[in-house]
Amino acid sequence: MSAMRHLLDLCKRRGFLFQSAEIHGGLRGAYDYGPLGVELKRNVSQEWWNSMVYQRSDVVGIDTAIITPPAVLKTSGHVDQFTDEMVDSRLSKDRFRPDKAPELKVDDQGRIPITAPDKYMAKLWENEIRTQFARGALITRKGKEILLSVERLEKDRIILKEDPTSSPIEESTLRIPYHGYVDPNSNSPFLTESRPFNLMFKTYLDPIDPTDKIITTTLEAQKSSSDLTTTRQLVDKTLYPSLTYLRPETAQGVFINYMTVQRSHPHLKIPFGIAQIGKSFRNEIRLEHAIFRTPEFEQMELEFFVAPWQAQDQFTAWRKSRMDWWKIYARNHDRIRERAHAEDELAHYSKGCIDVEYLFPWGWGEVEGIANRGDFDLSRHSEATGIKLQYTDAILMQERQAKEKATGEKETRVEVLEKERFTPHVVESSCGLNRAMLAFMLDALEVVDEQGRVVPLDEVNETNTNNSSKGIRIIMKLHPRLAPVKVAVMPLISNNKDLVDVCTSISNRLRQELQVNVALETQSTTIGKRYYRMDEIGTPWCVTVDYDTLKDQTVTIRDRDTGAQRRVSSEEVLKIVQDGMKLKPQSS
Fold it and tell me: Distances from the Cα of 307 to the Cαs of 146, 264, 315, 346, 421, in angstroms?
């Protein structure tokens, strides 16, 4: 059982993550965050906000609208260029991105194994291949696998072997175009040509249903014998006045508010930043790995405005700062890396970009990008609106004017004047909140046996982890500041009123003093099972109230990661938790 399977099982069982609208059959790629999931997500975003805004004097926050007018996204290039290449599998009809698809697999007998969902579909697919895609090819079928015999592989095509029992055929039917990738699910090379697909969701601000307008416009176009292209243009023109988009990123809301923020906060001097956490929407071709890639997601973004001559140094500084942040909260630093973009990966305006990647069960995946965007964004919006989105350094200007007055000579050097007034460059940090949450959970996930030894996840089955009496149990070793529940307070005997009253008093005090989520655990199960439940959801400390507490006001406090227990005064619990929540790197 893989780490991802373990995690998703735990998420549903313990209330981190649910399939959205599950009682109505669910919605592909949509998830609801349960009571524990919403706490974890909030903690991750709060730690990011603390680091990026509260611990700095040069960054302020903003919260911009999700619904975005077309002019903004036309200017930014999203309307014309925010696309992925898309390919259809001609057998399964699945759609996928070719840049994320695997290469062709060939077995040791020189055959291409195409895997269908079941035996029935394998039979249908075999018939399609024989009659439509590769007539006369040597094909066999075993169970739900269709095996295509290969004559040879060339750079841009696959040459299949001819079935000696088939009727004479043209050689071209045995040549299959190959562009270096296949259907990720089936290994099928029978694909359509790739084509661009815009990732933005359109919507319309209009009391009249746009469907009615489409029908009316189409019928009018048909009367004038308009072709399909002309009809599409007429429909687009009719709908354009009410057209809007769900934003594909939070960054554009920051750029169009650059001047407004600067004017309302005159203390902000270059370099300064504007931070935002919010939802974005992308019509992804392929939704995968639970909350890793979904059409609705949350971003934590910082746009840091700098002078052109500061940009590279600031880019370098932010790279280090962001990697340091990840290492504070992650236990396994070897699962986090920096990957610099190659030249052919960079946007045409980009001066440099690196991804922070985490080693997920399926491979390395991006969780954050840090980019030197140059002056592209502000320059584009400035050109489109006629509003100069520039920064004026008043001190440098005053110094020049004073010097001119003293010497009587007017400064004309371009490099001097450009330092006074310029279009800021932008260093961007863009972090996926949902991906960060997934990475931290996988990083924290650990399975141990009854002796406390770590058990490899692929050696543990679902039955074992659902039954702690078998000695196998899960511990979620989240950083205490990320943990959904910081402390669980529980009576040794759950139905003893005196013990429950003391637990209530301790938990209330912890909530009031620390302003954190504290669980009052009064379930009628053994204390061991309650401990194990808290281990699973990542609670760093469990406080147990017993009969001795009534005599001397001492309690037992248990550490999640070590299982160690010690007897302390109930008054000491507050300080222990406070000290444990201080920012420091996790130990593995």
Answer: 60, 20, 12, 21, 10
Which runs of consecutive H residues, i.e. helices, occur in 358-496?
Answer: 376-385, 394-407, 414-420, 433-444, 462-466
User: In this model, does residue 495 exceed pLDDT 70?
Assistant: yes
Contact assessment for residue 66 and residue 278, using Cβ atoms and an 8 Å cutoff: yes
3-class DSSP state for residue 311? helix
Q: Is the pLDDT of residue 409 over 80?
A: no
Angle between helices 228-239 and 210-223 (to 10 degrees): 140
What is the rounded CA–CA span in Å between residue 242 and residue 70?
A: 10
Q: Is the pLDDT of residue 416 over 70?
A: no
Cα–Cα dist 112/179, whole Å: 15
Q: What is the Cα–Cα distance from 93 to 95, expressed in whole angstroms?
A: 6
Q: What is the pLDDT of residues 296-333, one digit of tens each?
A: 999 999 999 999 889 999 999 999 999 999 999 999 99
Find the mean pLDDT for residues 512-517: 94
Question: What is the reported pLDDT for 467?
Answer: 47
pLDDT in tens, 533-557: 999 999 999 999 999 999 999 999 9
Contacts of 27 (CB under 8 A, 6+ apart): 20, 21
Least confident of 36-40, 222-226, 232-236, 494-498: 222-226
Q: How far apart, in whole angstroms, are the C-alpha atoms of residue 392 and residue 553?
A: 64
CA atoms within 13 A on the CB side of 316: 3
Average pLDDT, rounded, for the chain: 90
Which distant-in-sequence residues (6+ apart) come within 8 Å of 464 by Cβ?
Answer: 470, 472
DSSP 16: S
What was the pLDDT predicted at 236? Answer: 87
Run of H or E including 304: strand 296-306
pLDDT at site 125: 96
* Size of the chain, expressed as the number of residues it contains: 588
Within 10 angstroms of residue 353's Cβ, the number of other Cβ atoms is 19
Pick from 378, 253, 252: nearest CA to 307: 378
In whole angstroms, give the CA distance from residue 104 to residue 200. Answer: 31
Structure token digits, residue 485: 């529940």
Within 8 A by CB and 6+ apart from 154, the residues are: 178
Instruction: Give CA–CA dist 136/164, Å, rounded.
Output: 8
Enter the tokens of residue 201.
């969701």
Distance (Å, rounded) from C-alpha 112 to C-alpha 437? Answer: 38
* Residues 244 and 205 sit within 8 Å (Cβ to Cβ): yes
Read off the pLDDT of each residue in 399-406 and give the average, rounded to a whole number.
69
Rounded to an integer, what distance in angstroms lies between the CA atom of residue 473 and that of residue 458?
Answer: 14
> Checking DSSP bridges between strand 425-432 and strand 363-374, what pairing results, if any?
antiparallel
Distances (CA, A) of 576 to 88, 251, 409, 487: 57, 40, 68, 11
| Whether residue 348 has pLDDT greater than 80 | no
Nearest residue to 519 (alpha-carbon basis) of 560, 549, 490: 490
Residue 272's beta-bridge partner residues?
A: 305
